[in-house]
Amino acid sequence: MKYPFFLLFMMLSVFGFSQKSKVDLKAIEKSLKNPDSPYNYDKLIFKYKGYPKSLDSIESQYLYYGRNFRNDKVQTSDEGFKNLAEAFKQGNFSDCVKQGKALYDKDPTNLDILLILLRAYDSLKDGSNFMHHLNQFRSLTDGIKSSGDGCLKKQLISSILWATNIFC
Fold first, then answer.
1. Range with the lowest mean pLDDT among 20-24, 43-47, 67-71, 147-151?
2. CA distances from 86 to 42, 122, 125 (A)
3. What are phi and psi of 125, to 5 degrees?
């Protein structure tokens, strides 16, 4: 009789502690705007642009989800992004890189821009820029994957596949 209760207790404790917490957007917003916070947006962007592999999963989460509180985001409906997508579809990769860098400077955590830049650098055989932006992309997607339940990972993968199919 003691054994089933012990087994039940062990299962509850293991499954209870394995649950991941949801992303606290209010805490992220507060930390990103606080200049003394280790998760200040400018500090994270500096680290992200310079050496993206040095970001841990929490910093990546703050950086990605902090996009929600920025006013200078690039939307897919913006004219600049439409021009970038058109240059990519036409196979004009040097122009694509030029336009992509301009948009990247405005919104470096935009996954759509990163994907287009990755494909353009790959087509131009520019290995160093390709690897740098790939590390940035991996850092952001790893932060997203580590921040939620299993459904978020499936949504992320389907979003990435959708974006790559559109621009192919």
1. 147-151
2. 31, 17, 20
3. 60, 40
DSSP state of 73: P
For residue 24, count other CB atoms closer than 10 A to its CB.
12
Give the distance from CA 26 to its chain's centroid: 19
From CA 78, how far away is CA 157, in angstroms rounded? 24
User: Helix, strand, coil shares of the chain as percentages rounded to 5?
Assistant: 75, 0, 25
Global confidence as pTM: 0.74
pLDDT given at position 91: 92
Contact yes or no for 52/136 (Cβ under 8 A): yes
Between CA 17 and CA 156 the distance in angstroms is: 24
The phi and psi torsions of 137 (rounded to 5 degrees) equal -60, -45
Q: For residue 19, what is the DSSP state? A: P
